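Sequence in, structure out. Go.
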Amino acid sequence: MNPQTFDQFRDEALRQGCGEVLVREWPPGHETPLHEHPFDARGLVVRGEFWLTVDGQTRHLQAGERFELARHIPHSERYGPEGATFWAARLNAAPAAG
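Output:
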């Protein structure tokens, strides 16, 4: 279902300037309440499904689909009956000029 391997996803993300790439696994039915991150995130769903809600709009993501989320954007997540796994690449905020 995924044309990429994790190593390919990681190498591509690192070339694009991401500082951290990891595997995120969520149990069946898990819900993450409204929160935000101090980094931009890019992801590729590799197993299961989840619903990502941003600003009242919900996107249903399934294996093989990608998503992006800018830093400091409030969002919530809800995972399907089989849970979900996605690969996540994080682009940290640039250091303050000084």
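Check: The two ends are 46 Å apart (CA to CA). The CA atoms of residues 46 and 63 lie 5 Å apart.
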